[in-house]
């Protein structure tokens, strides 16, 4: 089954960078403004301050789960954006939920990544987020996993995990430089690192006979599936940006 | 700035429009009933209607409840700060609300379910996505578009019990809307003696005053807002209300066409996507992980030596370097090879204690930071 990915890069005029991303049925618009002058109370003299605000469609006050998403986004971005390059400035990231059909964080982070690339904010790496869910066995379908679960799948799933991967591995001074890849060719099985991970639920059934091993194995499977899917996400981001520069 | 004012003196607007020419308007209803997105030139706004059943206000037991919230998101303009609305924001949201509530555009008695006990509370959430000027008009248009697009579930009352039918059983019904009031704003420029329709952000920044007329498609004036600014004569106001009436008629016609296109329950008016692709829900996995718990293949996670992977070629003077990263960040090939081994590999360089060997999923990839620090 294919999950449709649709993005509208640079959809807003006033923001420095913006993107509207729709994965499956979850539609999120993200905008980035900055680096901009910062009021003294938020100022950091050695790096840029990052502010993330999440806006729901209906109702203004965020509950704890939604505030958690804001916090996760902020911490992930604090690692990803090269904040030391712009000290004493403010980078404002705004996320507007347009339609929610499943877990939000993965889609929100990918939308924010596209907006950051659109704005030209310097990043240490391009983060890619993937949401995976393990599917409980039901009649006619064995236990399994899928990426980008729908609302119904996520609610029925015993375990939903959202991973954020970084695509740049540091290489040591003195080590041979990685072989240059010709454009269009992807290295087989490129190495990635996990920047953030948000997992909720049970990795294996409570009454399993060897819970630690089963849980560890399930975690490995989920993260491997997420890693495979993240390659697709990076490809999508690359193509979306290429389209933008061609049409600009 | 002088350029804009000088051009206006000659009757030309910076974006090429005539003084009475508005920007193009487009509507989009991509998601559920009551979700309306409106674009007026560069100004972009989202309106969302929702309804729930609540107890009515004690002084109005036969009427439903109507509430508005406007969110001036920092996404729309660097001038909007998250949190409190500015004066301008409050003025704009009040004009929009007044135009709909005080003109009784929505029939409140029809929202009553059980007098004194249960009524529909309809909520209109407006979000400003992009401030390209003339937010009042765009917001009021979006609110009315959303109200017209919205459907509330059908009900039946059996004695004390209230049955709310889901959309799958009975089609939801529209709200009872008497008329469609739309705000039309003019920017006033005294030096050029011009009132420009549908000002952009630059024009708003330089105008001497503004007049907003909320009017419906039949020409009935519903509200007027002129908060200070350059004084104008009564005949001028009447002339502008005439123009506003024409504009409102035009807008309601465009809106009616856009709503007709949404006829069925399916969403219409998809946003314009610049790039689309499909990714598999279950990606093809490398063979090693496709089947069963591959416990034999994976090392125990806690000994995965990512941060302290050895580089056998490294010379001992690495002791001078306090950070483990140059030693740890061996070439990717080295790290991958280390994965396959089940025992922790030997560490020739004097790296910190084996606690460094634990993969910290929480922390950042330290080597990049140190590399940046090393470059300073």
From TrEMBL, chain A:
Family: Belongs to the RNase PH family.
Signal peptide positions (record): none
The protein's name: Ribosomal protein S5 domain 2-type protein
Keywords (A to Z) from UniProt: Exosome, Nucleus, Ribonucleoprotein, Ribosomal protein, rRNA processing
GO cellular component: ribosome
SUPFAM superfamilies in UniProt: Ribosomal protein S5 domain 2-like
Keyword Ribosomal protein carried by entry: yes
Record Gene3D superfamilies: GHMP Kinase, N-terminal domain
The UniProt record lists the keyword rRNA processing: yes
Chief place of localization: nucleus
Taxonomic superkingdom: Eukaryota
From TrEMBL, chain B:
Ranges of Low complexity composition bias in the record: 312-335
Pfam families hit by this protein: RNase_PH, RNase_PH_C
Domain Exoribonuclease phosphorolytic span(s) in chain numbering: 29-153, 179-240
Feature: compositional bias, Pro residues: 343-353
UniProtKB keywords: Cytoplasm, Nucleus, RNA-binding
Predominant subcellular localization, coarse grouping: cytoplasm
Compartments, record wording: Cytoplasm; Nucleus
SUPFAM superfamilies assigned to the protein according to its UniProt record, in alphabetical order: Ribonuclease PH domain 2-like (SSF55666), Ribosomal protein S5 domain 2-like (SSF54211)
Location of the region described as Disordered in the Swiss-Prot/TrEMBL record: 312-376
UniProt-listed CDD domains: RNase_PH_RRP45
Family that this chain belongs to: Belongs to the RNase PH family.
UniProt protein name: Exosome complex component RRP45B
